[in-house]
Amino acid sequence: MADTDFDRVRKQVRQFVVERDWDQFHSPKNLSMALIVEAAELVEHFQWLTEEQSCELSPEQLAEVELELADIQVYLISLAEKLKLDLVAAVDKKLALNAKKYPADQVRGSAKKYNEYKQS
Questions:
Q1: Domain count of the chain?
Q2: How many whole angstroms separate alpha carbon 53 and alpha carbon 23?
């Protein structure tokens, strides 16, 4: 079976870490902290923008946001690898749980949290 794009990226991230002998620093605690730092750096690009401005980033801004998203993805993959978790399976599981919490026919167009609407 051929590798998916995700498998390829996961292997690249692992190889990058191995080549630099960084696994010794990649505890779940450190990786989760690095992940949140990168998420905060992403938020900085949108801080103080209006809703409209946040949807109309310049090519330069988009390039910067793209790199922050990549940093987030790298740390997320590394954390999942460290904990021996399958991110694809986790997403599948979470989407199934969310589908039960947020039935499309009941929540379409609503931003309410699952406990704020009547479930049938």
A1: 1
A2: 39
